[in-house]
């Protein structure tokens, strides 16, 4: 169609109306573009030190909170020497972001936040991208999981739960805030195995995060919940939920949880922690890797980061470079073993 | 009453000039962001979090409140004008809203959306202020069986919208249900219909499906016919709501609020189901009114559904905003993040050292009441800002078609891309655009497909959750009072259908008195006269 057509679709009135409409469209587009750029946090000069931080799940999720906290500290301390842009890459529990990161080989301007859930999701979503094959930079934090029950639950200790499981694994309905392969799913399965119960018999209901899981517990829809504890402290302090055990090596320091025993104290040989860290794409130079690790170390040592840890109830667990790579390998092994035992792989 | 006093204190705190400014900034940003498909309120708040670090918590929350309601409202603008819903909650608005816009009633559609959002948001916020703790206690008792019963109800109601040919309607519905199956099985982790494509392992985004089928399909259809058919000129309507518009809008606003608020307050309620239920209710009521009305009245009030009925915009828009308000119930009363937006807000709270939980409303009462008050203020600001803009926005449609549709396609692609910055999503959008074109070509109604995509996964998740809890025993499905009540109503209505229609036939034969009681029967959710509708539904 030729551009000079001025035929039947010209609205009545002609010129003035069309100019008005054009202006309106232009205004709309400008608005849209402004919103997009503002929304992405882009303030691009041509500073070559600018970097991207990918977050493999949605805003408000765990990786998002950790990733944005880290970026905030890096930014305010001007540690990277450039702007940092945060991008949430959703999909397949983090494995979309993971496989895209593997495709960014050699990109030295990119980092990604990840955690145990991403490792699990690469398996359950059948993605052949192992985090330890990228460039592991640093583990930042860890978070203990807890075994939660409603206040009026007949389970007083973790032994009560184990006893009920031993009697009939199918009689206890448990739930968690992650889909199969995620931390809240792996934890009860490994707990069952550690106590001699067949993980395949465990009846697990997956909820879409901590909120729906809490309401299922409060409404007595399920008997036991497995989850990281940060989202539940309010409920625990109010006495609405009780914690039977925490999964770390040591007790949680915070007041509300100080009386809760670890699994090992209760005679169960299992330590399980959810962790989060930062990796870079594969194939970046040794110097760049060292530089990024050094920047993250400076971030970790800053008072702002320590403050962020306290605010969010995260446990400091800073491991860098080769040690982190080995850690990722071990985790990968552990996750795949558990999923294989469940016939999920 | 004590609560009202506290709310008044909150209002006093929110109405300082500085706080008003933050509310206005929040509302404006929220509207802009909501207009963009792909960037929802949750993303907007997450992005603005760093900006608010310097602010006091109260002010930060005032801004968030504005963003939240602004974002919910902004989605309706593109739905109505460009047929590109920005989020799943405004998919229903696009149906009648865009038809109205193309019939030259865009300003009215935008106005009824703005006022409906205001009414629903205000009522919803007041309900939160008065009853949040009590409602929250009830809401956690609602489990998977009740949700499933609600879905069954909704599915039965979809038969209302199957269109002229039941066969085509069901075909479309099943295509939608199939699209809803794509992705990872949540219970076993098995991929279904993903063909080895990683991006498909997540369920398909309803917004991409809807925008592809509505906007892109439409654009392709128009392009295919551009030279063969004379272009329809979008008539210029009057810019304001007429008296008849008001008369037809106020009831849908209230009914939409009644649907939306309880769903928002439920931990897994969401906004899709209430907007859909509201749409279907309005549609059925419109049909009944037409049948029930007599003489002059009947001539005036033909059922406009399928041609751009204002009720179909007023109801869903109110439902969508009421559910946004309802979401505050679990968030404030229990500290539960039931939506992405709520979890961003709650993590912001934690950033200020405030622990969300059941004590939030008592320990930080002043902040909570200021937040509620600023929601009311933000809502009013939203109305004041958007009502005058409605006629202006509506002029957008007078852009010549090639340029207009180019703009729509650009906008749709931008939205699909912005969610994940992944070109794959644009490919997906194009695919659904082609599907939309094909459906138009072969006369398949698109609405049942969209409903299948929305309802299918929800229904499956709840059914399987219930059955996992019971160990496979179907008796759990009627184990909750609410579920029983819903099934009972459904059965009653379905069973009484033949009786009712016979009675109605007799009543119509007599035609003596005007007390036709089915003009007001809003409780029935049967699929009666399911596919018998004659109105063209080929959208």
TrEMBL record, chain A:
Task: Tell me the Gene3D superfamilies matching this sequence.
Answer: Bordetella uptake gene, domain 1, Periplasmic binding protein-like II
Pfam families, alphabetically? TctC
Highest taxon above the source species = Bacteria
| Family stated for the protein in its record | Belongs to the UPF0065 (bug) family.
Which PANTHER family does UniProt cross-reference here?
A: TRICARBOXYLATE-BINDING PROTEIN (PTHR42928), UPF0065 PROTEIN YFLP (PTHR42928:SF3)
This chain belongs to the protein called C4-dicarboxylate ABC transporter substrate-binding protein
Organism name: Isoptericola cucumis
From TrEMBL, chain B:
Query: Which residue numbers delimit the DUF112 domain?
Result: 20-451
Which ranges are annotated Low complexity under compositional bias? 530-539
Which stretches does the entry tag as region Disordered?
A: 509-539
Pfam families assigned to the protein according to its UniProt record, in alphabetical order: TctA
Q: Does the keyword Transmembrane apply?
A: yes
**Keyword flag Transmembrane helix:** yes
Which keywords does the record carry? Answer: Membrane, Transmembrane, Transmembrane helix
Task: Name the domain of life this protein comes from.
Answer: Bacteria
Provide the transmembrane region boundaries.
Answer: 33-55, 109-132, 144-162, 169-186, 206-224, 368-390, 402-421, 428-455, 475-496
- Bias (Basic and acidic residues): 520-529
The UniProt entry, under PANTHER family, shows: TRICARBOXYLIC TRANSPORT PROTEIN (PTHR35342)
Stated name of the protein: Tripartite tricarboxylate transporter TctA
Q: Which organism is it from?
A: Isoptericola cucumis
């Amino acid at each position: 169609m030729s551009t000079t057509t001025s035929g039947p679709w010209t609205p009545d009135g002609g010129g003035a109306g069309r100019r008005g409409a054009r202006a309106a469209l232009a205004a709309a587009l400008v608005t849209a573009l402004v919103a997009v750029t503002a929304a992405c946090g882009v303030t691009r000069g041509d500073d070559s030190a600018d970097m991207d931080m990918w977050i493999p799940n949605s805003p408000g999720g765990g990786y998002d909170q950790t990733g944005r906290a880290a970026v905030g500290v890096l930014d305010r301390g001007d540690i990277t020497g450039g702007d940092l842009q945060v991008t949430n890459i959703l999909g397949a529990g983090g494995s979309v972001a993971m496989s895209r990161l593997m495709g960014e080989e050699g990109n030295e301007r990119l980092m990604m936040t990840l955690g145990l859930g991403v490792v699990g999701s690469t398996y359950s979503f059948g993605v052949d991208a192992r985090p330890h094959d990228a460039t592991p930079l640093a583990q930042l934090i860890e978070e203990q999981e807890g075994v939660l029950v409603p206040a009026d639950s007949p389970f007083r200790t973790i032994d009560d739960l184990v006893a009920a499981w031993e009697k009939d694994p199918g009689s206890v309905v448990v739930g968690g805030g992650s889909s199969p392969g995620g931390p809240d799913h792996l934890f009860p399965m490994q707990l069952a195995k550690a106590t001699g119960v067949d993980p395949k018999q465990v009846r697990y209901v997956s909820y879409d995060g901590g909120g729906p899981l809490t309401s299922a517990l409060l409404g007595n829809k399920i008997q036991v919940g497995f989850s990281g504890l940060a989202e539940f402290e309010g409920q625990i302090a109010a006495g609405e939920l009780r914690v039977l055990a925490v999964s770390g090596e040591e007790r949680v320091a915070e007041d509300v949880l100080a009386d809760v025993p670890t699994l090992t104290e209760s005679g169960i040989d299992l330590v399980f922690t959810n962790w989060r860290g930062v990796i870079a794409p594969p194939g970046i130079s040794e110097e760049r890797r060292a530089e990024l690790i050094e920047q993250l170390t400076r971030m970790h040592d800053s008072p702002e980061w320590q403050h962020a840890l306290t605010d969010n109830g995260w446990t400091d667990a800073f491991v860098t470079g080769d040690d982190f790579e080995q850690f990722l390998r071990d985790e990968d092994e552990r996750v795949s073993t558990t999923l294989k035992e469940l016939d999920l792989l | 009453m004590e609560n009202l006093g506290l709310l008044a204190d909150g209002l006093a705190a929110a109405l300082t000039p500085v706080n008003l400014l933050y509310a206005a900034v929040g509302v404006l940003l929220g509207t802009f962001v909501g207009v963009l498909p792909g960037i929802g309120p949750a993303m907007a708040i997450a992005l603005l979090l760093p900006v608010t670090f310097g602010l006091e918590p109260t002010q930060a929350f005032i801004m968030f409140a504005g963003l939240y309601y602004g974002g919910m409202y902004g989605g309706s603008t593109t739905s109505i004008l460009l047929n590109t819903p920005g989020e799943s909650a405004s998919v229903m608005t696009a149906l009648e809203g865009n038809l109205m816009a193309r019939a030259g009633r865009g300003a009215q559609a935008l106005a009824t959306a703005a006022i409906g959002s205001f009414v629903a948001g205000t009522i919803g916020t007041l309900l939160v202020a008065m009853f949040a703790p009590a409602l929250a206690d009830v809401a956690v008792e609602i489990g998977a069986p009740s949700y499933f019963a609600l879905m069954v109800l909704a599915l039965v109601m979809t038969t209302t919208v199957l269109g002229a040919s039941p066969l085509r309607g069901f075909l479309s519905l099943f295509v939608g249900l199939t699209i809803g199956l794509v992705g990872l099985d949540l219970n076993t982790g098995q991929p279904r219909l993903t063909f080895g494509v990683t991006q498909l392992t997540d369920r398909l985004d309803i917004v991409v499906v809807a925008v592809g089928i509505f906007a892109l399909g439409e654009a392709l259809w128009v392009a295919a016919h551009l030279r063969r058919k004379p272009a329809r000129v979008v008539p210029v309507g009057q810019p304001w709501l007429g008296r008849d518009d008001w008369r037809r809008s106020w009831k849908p606003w209230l009914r939409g609020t009644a649907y939306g608020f309880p769903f928002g307050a439920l931990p897994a309620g969401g906004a899709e189901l209430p907007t859909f239920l509201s749409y279907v209710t309005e549609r059925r009521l419109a049909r009944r009114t037409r049948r029930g009305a007599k003489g002059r009245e009947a001539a005036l009030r033909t059922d406009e559904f399928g041609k751009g009925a204002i009720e179909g915009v007023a109801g869903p828009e109110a439902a969508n905003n009421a559910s946004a308000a309802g979401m505050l119930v679990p968030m404030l009363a229990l500290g539960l993040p039931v939506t992405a937006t709520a979890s961003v807000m709650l993590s912001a709270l934690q950033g200020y050292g405030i622990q969300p939980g059941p004590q939030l409303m008592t320990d930080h009462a002043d902040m909570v009441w200021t937040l509620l008050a600023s929601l009311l203020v933000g809502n009013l600001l939203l109305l004041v800002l958007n009502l005058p803009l409605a006629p202006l926005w509506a002029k957008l449609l007078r852009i010549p078609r090639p340029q207009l549709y180019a703009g729509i396609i650009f906008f749709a692609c931008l939205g699909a891309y912005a969610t994940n910055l992944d070109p794959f999503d644009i490919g997906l959008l194009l695919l659904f655009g082609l599907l939309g074109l094909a459906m138009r070509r072969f006369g398949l109604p698109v609405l049942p497909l969209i409903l299948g995509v929305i309802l299918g996964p929800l229904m499956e998740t709840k059914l399987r959750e219930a059955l996992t809890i019971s160990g496979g025993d179907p008796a759990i499905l009627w184990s909750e009072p609410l579920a029983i009540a819903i099934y009972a109503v459904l059965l009653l209505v379905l069973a009484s259908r033949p009786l009712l229609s016979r009675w109605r036939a007799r009543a119509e034969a007599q035609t003596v008195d005007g007390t036709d009681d089915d003009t007001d029967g809003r409780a029935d959710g049967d699929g009666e006269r399911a596919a018998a509708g004659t109105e063209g539904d080929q959208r």
